[in-house]
Amino acid sequence: MAEEEAVKLFGTWRSPFSRRVEIALKLKGVDFKYYEEDLTNKSHLLLKYNPVHKKIPVLVHNEKPIVESLVILEYIDETWKEGFPILPKDPCQRSHARFWARFLDEKCLPAIEEACLRSVDREKAVEEACELLKLLENELKDNKFFGGETIGLVDIVASVISCWLKAFQQVAGVELLTKEKLPKLCEWSDEFVSHAVIKGCLPPSDKLLASLRAHFETVASKELCT
Amino acid sequence: MSKAEVILLDCWISPFCMRVKIALEEKGVAYESQAEDLFGGKSELLLTSNPHGKVPVLLHNGKPVSESAIIVAYIDESWSSSPLLPPCAYGRAQARFWADYIDKKVFDAGKAIFMSKGEAVEVGKKDFIEIIKTLEKALGDKDFFNGDTFGFVDIIGIAMTSWFPAYEKFGSFKLEDHCPKFSAWIKRSWQRESVAKVIPEAEKVIEFVTMFRKMMGAED
């Protein structure tokens, strides 16, 4: 098998979960073959590799599938040990990184979605989302990145804030990530997206905006119909 | 090692706390359990140690670790005897996947059974059994999810089964009739001292869940 074929990634161009795996692979310098999935018509390979959730991203390494983005990130870190470290070595610091990665996915993202999609009680939803983002911001302390001097697990997972949240709030007309409300997080975001590897891994913002606008219109028209 | 080096902010009925206690027992780590009154008023220590203000929180030499699955991983990484995860990266990824599946599905599905009434109970029961069947398939013919030895996924899963007697009562079913292999795994896991020591008696769990569902407004 060609070296590139040994590592395959099934994802979509606009999924933050898919892009975070790309970021990790590129930081580690791992060659891989990328397969773009059409989620309205999932490939038989995707369904074969992820029969339980039928979702992207899926990493396939030597024909063995690994699914769930946070699980994949840890797998990448443990498999390509000599490359760029994603998780710290100290067990206590590792547990903190895992905690904030989960916090992002399980608390921040649903709150952000609520704030952007909800039409009733929107102000309250925005306030709640901001409070959660403030908790996250506090974790930066005086560091450049959540990982300290260099990018780590939480930075990679938080890529959703530096790119997707900005697009979301533009389309929804909502103000979440602003310099007034979250100055340190804004600073982190600017630093993060200017990193050489990260720059190449994020979706083009105009394409993402157009795609989100279409998505919002579909959601809004569904609400009108119910 | 003095007991006070490892403190667990705990609640006897929480399956998430049980996971941590089982892991500590498996590793032979001495610890002090500090009971939290989740309904009466959480301690200052809990509220400052965990941004979510939830149990369990493990304090190791004063440093807090939160989220039960993350705590169990921390315990495994800090005390290297009797490893809970397989040695290879792929095996570990599989274990983390199933732990995540259990986390996302089991408790909510069980809650849907005892919080519902009428037709919704049947729907809840069906969903719950489907989830357990998926886990049963993952278990296959192995003794434990970890293979020959009791490990990470077994700990994450067995603690959740502490509330199964309540689901069976309110859903009027016996899991054994639908998922015999999974039930056999439960019995096999109960033979372990750590599990038998930590998981409360079924009657006490049923009593608590009966009170809890009433408190949460579920009507009969």
Automatic annotation (TrEMBL), chain A:
It comes from the Eukaryota. Residues 5-84 form the GST N-terminal domain. Pfam families: GST_C (PF00043), GST_N (PF02798). CDD domains: GST_C_Tau, GST_N_Tau. Residues 90-216 form the GST C-terminal domain. Its EC number is 2.5.1.18. SUPFAM superfamilies: GST C-terminal domain-like (SSF47616), Thioredoxin-like (SSF52833). One of its GO terms (biological process) is glutathione metabolic process. It catalyses: RX + glutathione = an S-substituted glutathione + a halide anion + H(+). Keywords: Transferase. PROSITE patterns: GST_CTER (PS50405), GST_NTER (PS50404). InterPro entries: Glutathione-S-Trfase_C-like, Glutathione-S-Trfase_C_sf, Glutathione_S-Trfase, Glutathione_S-Trfase_N, GST_C, GST_C_Tau, Omega/Tau-like, Thioredoxin-like_sf. GO terms for molecular function: glutathione transferase activity. One of its GO terms (cellular component) is cytoplasm. Belongs to the GST superfamily. This is glutathione transferase. It comes from Rosa chinensis.
From TrEMBL, chain B:
GO terms for molecular function: glutathione transferase activity. PROSITE patterns: GST_CTER, GST_NTER. Keywords: Cytoplasm, Transferase. SUPFAM superfamilies: GST C-terminal domain-like, Thioredoxin-like. Its main location: cytoplasm. It is an enzyme of class 2 (transferase). It comes from the Eukaryota. CDD domains: GST_C_Tau (cd03185), GST_N_Tau (cd03058). Gene3D superfamilies: 1.20.1050.10, Glutaredoxin. It is found in: Cytoplasm, Cytosol. Residues 88-212 form the GST C-terminal domain. GO terms for cellular component: cytosol. InterPro entries: Glutathione-S-Trfase_C-like, Glutathione-S-Trfase_C_sf, Glutathione_S-Trfase, Glutathione_S-Trfase_N, GST_C_Tau, Omega/Tau-like, Thioredoxin-like_sf. It catalyses: RX + glutathione = an S-substituted glutathione + a halide anion + H(+). Its EC number is 2.5.1.18. GO terms for biological process: glutathione metabolic process. Residues 4-83 form the GST N-terminal domain. Is involved in the conjugation of reduced glutathione to a wide number of exogenous and endogenous hydrophobic electrophiles. Belongs to the GST superfamily. This is Glutathione S-transferase.
